[in-house]
Amino acid sequence: MDERTPSTSSPPYGVGDTSFRAAGEGEGLRKLVDLFYDLMDRLPEAKTVRAMHPANLETARDKLARFLSGWLNGPDTYVEKYGPIHIPRAHTHLAIGTAERDAWLLCMEKALAAQPYAEDFKRYMLRELRVPAERCRTR
């Protein structure tokens, strides 16, 4: 079975809203994002990335959950609330290199691992999130 295919009767991830549904829709994404930022607060490897965020992560949590919703072909709630986003441009003011990118991905990998998602979906998500993570690099 292809890694992108959740089961023989389901369409592959990335088709329609399959990925959004596999992530548990809005509620599932909020859980993922909350753990992601909790890990960023706790993991020593993420100290530099955490320092790039404000002390209060409420808005960051909301933005990431809303971004992921639209990115996974669910409701585009980020645009509804915050307007259009251009990922690389939104991060140009930050010194993001490979170490920072990898720390961000480490937090996401650990957050994904703790979710009740199918294992193939976790791998799919991490692989696909490498693309915007790389595009955020500024150095």
Protein described:
- The chain has 139 residues and is an all-alpha fold.
- It has helices at 18-22, 25-42, 47-51, 58-71, 77-82, 87-90, 98-113, 119-135.
How do you describe this structure in short?
The chain has 139 residues and is mainly α. It has helices at residues 18-22, 25-42, 47-51, 58-71, 77-82, 87-90, 98-113, 119-135. Helix 2 crosses helix 7.
Labels describing this entry:
8 helices, disordered N terminus
SSE layout and pairings?
Elements: H1 18-22, H2 25-42, H3 47-51, H4 58-71, H5 77-82, H6 87-90, H7 98-113, H8 119-135
Helix pairs in contact: 2-4, 2-7, 7-8
From the spread of the alpha carbons, the general shape counts as globular
SSE sequence, one letter per element? HHHHHHHH
Q: Could you describe the largest sheet, including whether it forms a barrel? A: none
- Uncertain residue segments: 1-7
Alpha-carbon Rg, integer:
15 Å
Determine the structural class based on helices, strands and strand pairing: mainly alpha
Mean pLDDT: 93
Helix content: 55-70%
Please state roughly what percent of the residues sit in beta strands, choosing from under 5%, 5-15%, 15-25%, 25-35%, 35-45% or over 45%: under 5%
Distance between the termini: 38 Å
Tally of strands: 0
Number of helices: 8
